[in-house]
Amino acid sequence: MNKTQLKELKTVLSQAQNIVIVPHKNPDGDAMGSTLALNHYLSELGHDANVIVPNDYPNFLKWLPGDDSVLIFENDQDKAEGLIHEASLIFTLDFNALHRAGEMLNSLEASTATKIMIDHHQQPDDYAKYMYSDVSMSSTCEMVYNFIEQLGDLEKVNSDIATCLYTGIMTDTGSFRFPSTTSRTHDVVSQLIAKGANNSEIHNKVFDTNRYSRLQLLGRAMQNLKVIPELFTSYITLSQDELDEFNFKKGDTEGFVNYGLSLKGIVFAAIFIENKQDDIIKISLRSKGEFSVNEFSRAHFNGGGHTNAAGGRSHESLEATVDKFISILPQYKEQLSPKQ
Ligand code: 5GP
Ligand code: MN
Known about the structure:
This protein has helices at about 5-15, 30-45, 75-85, 105-110, 140-150, 160-170, 185-195, 200-205, 210-225, 240-245, 255-260, 295-300, 320-330, 335, and strands at about 20-25, 50-55, 70, 90-95, 115-120, 130-135, 225-230, 235-240, 270-275, 280-285, 305, 310-315. The protein has 2 domains: about 5-175 and about 180-205, Alpha-Beta Complex (inorganic pyrophosphatase (n-terminal core)), CATH 3.90.1640.10; about 210-335, Roll (Diaminopimelate Epimerase, Chain A, domain 1). The protein is globular and about 60 Å long. The strands form 2 sheets. Strands 3-2-1-4-5-6 form a 6-stranded parallel beta sheet, sandwiched between helices. Strands 7-8-9-10-12-11 form a 6-stranded mixed beta sheet. Helices cover about 40% and strands about 15% of the residues. The longest helix is centred in the first third of the chain and has 16 residues, at about 30-45. It is built from 14 helices and 12 strands. It is an alpha/beta fold. The chain binds guanosine-5'-monophosphate (5GP) and manganese (II) ion. Manganese (II) ion binds near residues 30, 94, 139 and 140. Guanosine-5'-monophosphate (5GP) binds near residues 24, 305, 309 and 311.
């Protein structure tokens, strides 16, 4: 977004608008944090915007300020479609292609509203009139902070905005440790704490509200962890039966794949999770260094994301999906091997 566009947007936002804010399907901390923070900011500007999420999100995010106003498209389709139809402005946050909004795709495509993208995923589609896309950013939340700053409104950042943005930056950076975390990220986080984000409390709310059954599921995932040392790769499987055995709830497997990546010498980790309801295997891929899981997922598993974190899916069985994964891997031996 250039200076002229920013000026234009400032004018647009100074007028009455019907605004909808949308994150990607299966929203994570960055998706929820950025949409809710933007909603709080727009309300500071006098707008009564609507946050519409494609489907439900994990309980560990259901305390975020403004959470009670979130509309779930899947559960309230008529109302959500009405709001999208009436919208004059639609912000799409933390995704790079409209199909990432899942069931909302058709309504978003049919809408004549002006679209604004704020996102840090690679290879963004060209659907938005105003595009703030930067793949070097730690998180969409860091970008929403920049967006507010570029509009000259940092003094409007209140404790609700700060709390939402802190949460998304924290979750998308693996608590400030992924390489996308820069000194600027820490500067922003410092400002957010100064504006009222309670860092320790947020950490507790997101990470320390485990149910016993979730830890037992983690135990099973760790027992299922396999290592392919010659390809510096590890992978985990969880079948629908195993999820059922441990009373799986949305969000329970968040972060499991990182344990595979924490093994000494491993640079590529995958988790394959069976979802009988959607008849897919949900795949999460993580890497260290230059090996691009975004490219890997685009090439083989109908997905994408970032260099070091991507998602994908398969329509084959769990066994067939893992077999495919194992059979593809040797092609990447050179990229996966440590550089001399
Ligand atoms: P996760 O493995 O946690 O589902 O996703 C990891 C990262 O990749 C997240 O930033 C997520 O938004 C992104 N991602 C997951 N699935 C897809 C996909 O199908 N396409 C694209 N472009 N990004 C994805
Ligand atoms: Mn993100």
